[in-house]
Amino acid sequence: MSVSPVSARRLAAAALTAAAVIGTVALPASAAAHSRPDRPKVEISAVQHDAPGRDTRANRSLNKEWVELTNTSRHSVDLDGWTLSDEDGDVYTFHHYRLAGRATVRVHTGEGRDTRSDLFQDRNRHVWDNRSDTATLRNDRDRVIDEVSWGSDRHHGGNRHDRDRHDDWDRHHGGDRHHGGGDRHHGGDRHHGGGDRHHGWGRD
Description:
The protein contains three helices and ten strands, in the order αβαβββββββββα. It has helices at residues 5-35, 59-62, 160-172; strands at 42-48, 66-71, 77-78, 83-85, 91-93, 98-99, 104-108, 118-120, 133-138, 144-150.
């Protein structure tokens, strides 16, 4: 059976219309995929503010005190210029460090050789208070990215990470991390006279 020129044109027009409809339906799905990018996200995933054993100024003790950061996205994040600080305003600054996707880095208080998984603040005293403190992560624009608080005065309406992770930290670090009180810095100002609080935190 032959097809007339008019019928052929109608069939061609119908095919073009169908293709346009299919394209229109497929476009939002493609656009939706691009509207939900895997944005880099870095969070404070764990804190060991009370070094196991007796707190001393020995480097081994200092390095048992640490904060872990985890990149929960698939893409690496440049942490150059980011900071990690405590409630007293002591600030550690990241220099020339990139955290890989799905990776974790542990920031120790004492001295050591930096690697991809371990960074060192090169301090000669403990930083994080055993009883009560807050670890705050800011980016290079001084915007708060994440923070974690601990202490008996924060268990009611405190930081969300304190409520969500309190039990996890106790399981991982052996029972009550607060040890019933007693400032590990033996009574007075844990920063020993309040000199330059920023000394030793920024690294070249």
